[in-house]
Design brief:
single chain, alpha+beta, seven-stranded mixed sheet, four-stranded antiparallel sheet, 11 helices, 13 strands
Length: 371
């Protein structure tokens, strides 16, 4: 039995009625309005109560079984399963375009008003949703009786009136710090966990302290020139992968992930070979072109995360910022070391060539594995 009505004495009933009257004296029609009040936690659980006036229930559930124009608690008890089914079908929440799993909890309460028509049921509900993404909601009641929604999420409170004439309506704002920072974190983790992207970046940094001279590399003794070259390479890579990342997320380009992964391995292989035997001297241009391919790979990772169409621009910005933070961290650690190592005679002959050879072997294995 879903409804658990508790009978009290006359004194308890009088106190309850007085409390209800005092609490809602500012609005004599409060219980005549459908209302939904809840709190959304960081794990995606929404604990809520819904107030449904009896006249709203009568629109989609037969309650007056004895046709005496008076709804009794016994009749409400008998219709509890039907009422629960209607609520599941008519109050629908989604997060990140994924449906939330709803549970109708058993401790229902009856809220009497001054007349029978405005009596309400107060029903506890729990929705389990994705931990991140826009929260959207649809309410299918009569047009003249919208659902008043109040949801607290962190430090913000979302208030909306939902009409049955609307589809899914976005309730929360993606601009809140927690969600934005979460997508930055996802981008940061992806670049640090993406060994193929890191190895490609290392091949670029290895020769950022060098200059191509014919069929070999020479040490660039100009520290300012080294920093400038590194900035140009990082900027070219950032600009190019941002382009393809955006094109993919907004649906303008739909690359095949299998071929993207294969091409990423090939970019590593070509860059490593170029470090050993330079045949591509316009490194900034090559970095830009190869970065376009890596952008498709970043887009694949971002598309696996939960976000809605309303969040595309902000999720793209946050994820890309995370990638750049991770990339700058790698540069900040490696570039000073490489600037120092470039002064040794063996830097290019052994260190650059040896490291590039190892990366090239890994890239060759990845190429065959992904072919």
């Amino acid at each position: 039995m879903l409804i658990n009505f508790r009978c009290g004495g006359l004194l308890a009933a009088a106190i309850f009625r007085f409390g209800v009257f005092a609490l809602f004296a500012f609005s004599s029609h409060t219980y005549a309005k459908n209302s939904f009040v809840g709190t959304l936690d960081e794990q995606g659980s929404l604990h809520a109560t819904i107030h449904i006036p009896i006249d709203t229930l009568l629109q989609f559930t037969p309650l007056d079984t004895n046709a005496n124009n008076a709804i009794t608690r016994t009749e409400l008890n008998a219709a509890s399963e039907s009422i629960a089914a209607q609520l599941r079908a008519r109050v629908i929440l989604q997060r990140a375009n994924q449906p939330c799993q709803v549970s109708i909890l058993p401790d229902w309460k009856f809220s009497p008003a001054s007349n029978n028509a405005n009596n309400s049921l107060v029903i506890p509900m729990r929705y389990q949703c994705a931990a991140l993404g826009a929260l959207t909601m649809r309410a299918d009641f009569a047009k003249e009786n919208p659902l008043s929604v109040v949801i607290k999420s962190g430090d913000s409170t979302i208030t909306r009136d939902l009409s049955s004439s609307e589809g899914f309506v976005t309730l929360d704002l993606f601009e809140n710090k927690r969600a934005f920072l979460s997508f930055i974190g996802e981008g940061f983790i992806h670049i640090l966990m993406g060994y193929d992207h890191i190895l490609f970046l290392i091949t670029l940094l290895l020769v950022s302290v060098l200059t191509p001279q014919g069929k070999q590399w020479q040490v660039n003794v100009d520290l300012g020139g080294v920093v400038k070259t590194a900035l140009i390479l990082v900027t070219a890579f950032t600009a190019s992968h941002s382009i393809t990342l955006g094109l993919t997320i907004f649906g303008w380009v739909k690359p095949v992930s299998h071929w993207v992964e294969l091409l990423i391995a090939i970019t590593m292989l070509l860059s490593a070979f170029n470090n050993i035997y330079p045949f591509m001297h316009r490194i900034a241009l090559i970095t830009f072109l190869f970065g376009l391919i890596h952008g498709f790979g970043f887009a694949g990772a971002l598309s696996e995360l939960a976000f809605s169409k309303e969040q595309q621009a902000l999720s793209l910005l946050a994820f890309n910022l995370g990638i750049e933070f991770g990339q700058l961290l790698i540069v900040a650690i490696l570039l000073p070391l490489l600037v120092w190592l470039r002064n040794f005679d063996w830097y290019y002959s052994y260190f650059v060539r040896g490291t590039s050879f190892v990366i090239g072997c890994i890239a060759l294995l990845l190429t065959f594995a992904r072919f």
